[in-house]
Design goal:
Length: 171
């Protein structure tokens, strides 16, 4: 266990309190935050109240404003839905899959109007955690299922307030 004293998060509420404590420190340990998210085991009865599905587009619903240090949201992707290629300006973004499957395609950060260069394509199942920031690149998130939704818990530090979207062909 890489972080002594980091007991397993037994509930979403417990995870929220541990995250608040982690973000009250002067320097946030991003590996510790990732470990906290990884140790929480998804329980639908804890997060289903944050789920709002729409047949035409994804939804994002606030779980915790994190005392202004971060935001914690539930992202809801219906069958076959996705999010355009986008950045996370000045923000670190963790994604914890609560239910379903999420496909993440990462690209080098665009520096000109040219075709984006794909750097990775990964599929994540329930309870997996992924991370991105603008030093890594930009990404697209997609639900590959044509029948089941994909629900994720997203933590952005500092809070994710705006972003730019990118076209894969033109940058």
């Amino acid at each position: 266990m890489p972080y002594p004293g980091c007991i397993k998060s037994t509930s979403l509420h417990d995870l929220q309190w541990k995250l608040r404590d982690a973000f009250e420190k002067e320097k946030v340990d991003m590996e510790f935050v990732k470990a906290l998210l990884g140790r929480y085991k998804s329980k639908q009865e804890e997060w289903e109240k944050y789920v709002t599905m729409h047949p035409d587009y994804y939804t994002r619903n606030l779980v915790d404003a994190g005392n202004g240090a971060y935001n914690l949201t539930v992202l809801c992707l219906g069958a076959g839905q996705g999010i355009a290629i986008h950045n996370h300006p000045l923000s670190n973004s963790f994604v914890k899959i609560l239910s379903g499957v999420l496909v993440e395609t990462q690209f080098e950060y665009p520096v000109s109007e040219t075709t984006l260069k794909q750097t990775s394509l990964k599929e994540y199942g329930t309870d997996a955690v992924t991370f991105i920031n603008d030093h890594i690149g930009v990404h697209r998130l997609e639900n590959p299922s044509q029948t089941d939704p994909c629900i994720s818990l997203n933590l952005n530090y500092p809070p994710f307030l705006l972003c730019s979207t990118f076209d894969e062909v033109t940058g």
